[in-house]
Structure formats: C-alpha cells, structure tokens
Write a structure and sequence with these properties.
Blueprint: H1 3-21, H2 27-32, E1 38-45, E2 49-50, H3 54-64, E3 69-72, E4 79-80, E5 85-92, H4 93-123, E6 130-132, H5 142-151, E7 165-167, H6 169-175, H7 178-188, E8 195-199, H8 202-211, E9 215-219, H9 223-233, E10 238-242, E11 260-262, H10 265-268, E12 275-282
Parallel strand pairs: 6-11, 7-8, 8-9, 9-10, 10-11
Antiparallel strand pairs: 1-5, 1-12, 2-4, 3-5
Length: 283
Amino acid sequence: MNNITMKLNADDLILAALKEDITSEDISTNSVMPRYQLGEVELICKEEGIIAGLDVFKRVFELLDEQTEVSFFCQDGDRVAKGQKLGVIRGDIRVLLSGERTALNYLQRMSGIATYTRAIADLLKGSKTKLLDTRKTTPGMRIFEKYAVKVGGGCNHRYNLSDGILLKDNHIGAAGGVKEAVQMAKEYAPFVRKIEIEVESLDMLKDALDAGADIIMLDNMSVEDMKEAVKLCAGKAETECSGNVTKENVSKLIGIGVDYISSGALTHSSPILDLSLKNLHAV
C-alpha cells in the first residue's frame, strides 16, 4: 500500500484497532517501563508462507510514535521461511510493547490470506481462469484482506455494494425472476456498469443470456452443468464459478473453462501465518 492509500483509507482503521486495545493506558508496559528508553525488537517468521501487510505493520508503530524506525529484510509477496528475521523495529520501548499485538494481528492475518491465496493461485497456473475473492471479509478489515489476496496472486471482485452490480438469488426473488432482475438493473444502472447475475440451473442461465447479462455466476452447479454453461455463454457473457471453493476442491474446476473462480475461503477460512516479535532490548 502506498502512503496516499494508507492515509486516506487505512489510518482510521488502524487507529480504531489501537484504541480497541488501549482504552486509557497500557498498564503492563507502564508498570515495567515508566519512562522513555530507546530499544529494538526483531520480527521473526515462525513458519513458511507468503508475507503481506508490512506497510500496515509499520504504520501501527508510526501512528503511536512517528519517530519509530522500521527496517524490513523482505517485501510483500516474498516467500518467507521458519526462523527468518524479517525486520527490525527501533524506537521507544513503550511504543514497541504497546503496538506489538495490533501490528502482529494485521501482519499475521494478511500473510495468512496471501499464503492461502498463493496455494490456490498456483493450482490455476496455465489455465485461463482467474482467482477472485468475495465480500466475505472481516468487518473493518476489507481493505487489508483484499490487498492480501492481490499479494497472494489472486484478483479482487467488487470492493463493496457501490462498486458493481451482482444480482444474487434474493435479488432475483425480489425482482420476480432472472429476466426481470437484469432488465431492472439495466434501466437503473449507468451504462458503464456491467451486470452480473447468479444462476443455479441451465434454465436460469438461458434466461440471463436472453436478458443480456454481462457476467454469469454459476453457483453450486454440477461440473457437467457448468461445462455446458460455458459452451452456452461463449461469445455472449463471461462466466464465474462460485460456491464453497477451497484449496482442496479447486482442482476439479480448472478444466471447466470458466473465466473466473471466486472463493470466500480466501478471506474467511485462511489460517494466520505465525509471526512474532522477539529479542527486545535497550540500545
């Protein structure tokens, strides 16, 4: 993330996380470090994975004290190994102690997402299919989690409800049918917006194509039906496969020929990457 993105979109979220952790004071730190003391601590990797979120990690300490110096020996997207020293943080020991957990929470979570995403993206290499995330993100963490997906080799679906038109089953129910939903979206939305609609059967797919949908999401359909759907959509609409896609089952979807595979698991089910701050000492 660049400085502009950080200041405009991330700083308020990071400050909220810090305020959640420090409502009045850090009693533990203040009891053992009552006054300023310059110190250093090392960022250590405890398992292999893909690192993501270094700028966010750094920003936590800078927001507590702009004099804090953070030096990294890697960059976002790098594969890191168990025992590897990833960086050194130098500053007021009180800041290093108070910001530790919040900074690690961001970095571990984002790196875990990048690691899981990379594992699935690697399986899709050589195919035309792109890997997408979803809006199944942690409240207050979307900007960080979607960034981590990109670092891991995935692509971002729409960022939020204002970012694109995706008509799902309940939208279709509210409109009264597939054709009605697409037509109403065409009438309401600016012409520059593509219209994506979720279908669960080939009959729904045909209605969506007849109505002029731009992207068809094939939701929880059988592999055989999805292959037929791709043929029907050829030259008419792009296709997206969705529904409980994980690292364990994505391989069977590669040969279908869809343009996109979306997976909520990238952000809602990836484990963290284990990292820690060690060897704190005065300098």
